[in-house]
Input
Amino acid sequence: MFDICIVGSGPSAVISAQVFVEKGYKICLLDIGDECKYKIPFKHFNEQLSPEADFFYPPDNNQSSTQSGDAQITKAREHLITHVNSYLQIESSNFAAFQALASGGLSAAWGAACFTYNDTDLDKASIGQLRSHYEAVAKIIGISGPKRSSFCDIQAKQKPANIDHNGQSLLRQCQNTFVLEPSSMALLTEPLNGRTANPYFDMDFYSNFGDSIFRSDCLLKTLALKPNFTHIKPALVTSFEEAHDQVKVKYLDLASSTTGQVVAAQLIICAGAINSYRLVANSLKIFEVPNPILCNPYINIPTIHLPNLGKKGAYYRHSLSQVFGEFHDNSDITLQFYSYRSLLLSRLMAQTPMPAFFARLFWRALSESLVIVGAHFADDGKSPRSIQALQAAQTSLPALKIDFPHPSLSNVFRLIGNLLKLRCVPMGIVKTKMGASIHYAGTIPISYEGQYPIGMDEQGRVHHTKNVYVFDSSGWTYLPSRGLTFTIMANAHRLSEALQRRNS
Ligand SMILES: Cc1cc2nc3c(=O)[nH]c(=O)nc-3n(C[C@H](O)[C@H](O)[C@H](O)COP(=O)(O)OP(=O)(O)OC[C@H]3O[C@@H](n4cnc5c(N)ncnc54)[C@H](O)[C@@H]3O)c2cc1C
Output
């Protein structure tokens, strides 16, 4: 019997596991854990030649295999979604969820942008004080960025990453309307725990040389060396059952197609807000009753940054966000500015309505000045939306039905107008379906018992259970516009320490 069973290997799961393993708990972690099967050469993006260039394109079956975020799925990342369509079905006409069953969960592809929430937002989200937990997690994962920061206010930081030509030029523009600063990211600029600094090969959508970007599997590798840590995979957890102060956790072994069971004193579910809901609903047999869900509306705006038109850009660069931005007077929209040379261009070329040769010339001329502005909007949960589990299959998990019409967004025209002040000329607005922000929360809200069909208390314990907890973003009651993952990790750290204190 284990002290604690943890479901998932994403950011919340590995941080929680780390806290308990350090305290000597006997931990069992269950997940599918699909991994990349390709070995990608350690070379600069521009030096990758055929057949390696194959990695730069989406897998052949991409269109049918994922519902959102498919621009992020390069061939080298196809393992993220291998089992998703078979086991994590969603019925929806207006919500495009990105789900991953890879080792490290969604963090196997995340952009590593790290934000802290202010006290008001933490309060609205029903999350406790996190300051010391942000610092503790930063020491584990390694965050680089400016020491004084409006966006990621922590002490434990490595020096900022080099900023490319577009990032530098943006920071030189008039800043009367926007607060702009170099991005804070879980990207190493100095070695940490056997991981190395980012080589600026612009390969960050395809590989993670030296584990320079924190993806949860970096921590899994360290945990795997501990004698009190057991990792069972490929295991799809299908339900839990409580009896006599024990939790029985049932799973499907995808390698042998047999079922298995782990027994633990406590269960911590970290399957991500959508799939933690799925697992709890299946276990408590709560079907076809709607619960809430939170998700940041998201748009992206491809722009030409005029000062760099026709100029040669930085050769050595990382592929992640260069600059963070917010309006001085409104923090309900958070911006990330990318120079999107590597990933996007092959797609844009294919979609351009002109012969391939001219399309290539056209985009080459523009590519160094191409700045993609990603804008996330806060979600207060007030517009209509719902998530519900449909009746379960016998051995697997139920399909989910999600209804989430796009809420109307204010300030979009103000945003477009003010991008011009940064000398970014918008070429259009890509209004994505709800779900495409890949920021999910609030499916099992922190609430009093009976307020929702499925809810949890402030300690993360699921109502109507004795020893079952959810430590990802499922309990949140508000979703600020800033990227959520650093807060997910800090909150998992806080909840795990609190549970450990109560246990002793
Ligand atoms: C392309 C991309 C870019 C992103 N960029 C950023 C960013 O820059 N900043 C930011 O803050 N966030 C970003 N995100 C979002 C971020 O990745 C997620 O918020 C974060 O990973 C959520 O962590 P989690 O622990 O809640 O769950 P997840 O990462 O979703 O992990 C869930 C885990 O549970 C496992 N699981 C699920 N169901 C089961 C089951 N039944 N049985 C067994 N295992 C199960 C999965 O395999 C996975 O290991 C990005 C995401 C993507 C995909």
Summary: The longest strand covers residues 258-269.
